[in-house]
Here is the input.
Amino acid sequence: MISQKMIKVNEDLLIRLIKQNLSDDLLPSERKPGHHPMFGFCGISSIIFWLCTGKQYKLMTGTVHGLLHTWVEDGDRIIDITVEQFEFFEENLSYENKQDYHTKYELNLKSPRIKKLLSRVTNAYKKLNHTNKIGYK
Here is the structure.
């Protein structure tokens, strides 16, 4: 069950734990060899961040340099966990065709990929001896 309570979480720590727990078994089948190591992880990473922060951010989807992409927004601030996949583009990042993720996709919280990464991240967080919980209760 997801906690509806807004939880104060160290964003940098959460992003680090998400990235440390990404693995190929969490990738969508569309990812091809040779892509940047972060390519394909934007959706699941953003969803886990959104869940672990008590859904207090806005989960967004759109395009960046013509590629379908997912990120989180906090007002005007963009939190893009997999932004380094765009480092080879010389021009500034432009987030276009922005939509609330929930108006475009149905979020399946029972997805094995989501459950697996959420479990990994919450377990890693607990190992750091933090007393507050993130995400699921």
Remarks:
- Confidence is low (pLDDT under 50) at residues 1-7.
- Strands lie at 58-64, 67-74, 77-79, 95-100.
- The longest strand covers residues 67-74.
- The CA atoms of residues 61 and 105 lie 9 Å apart.
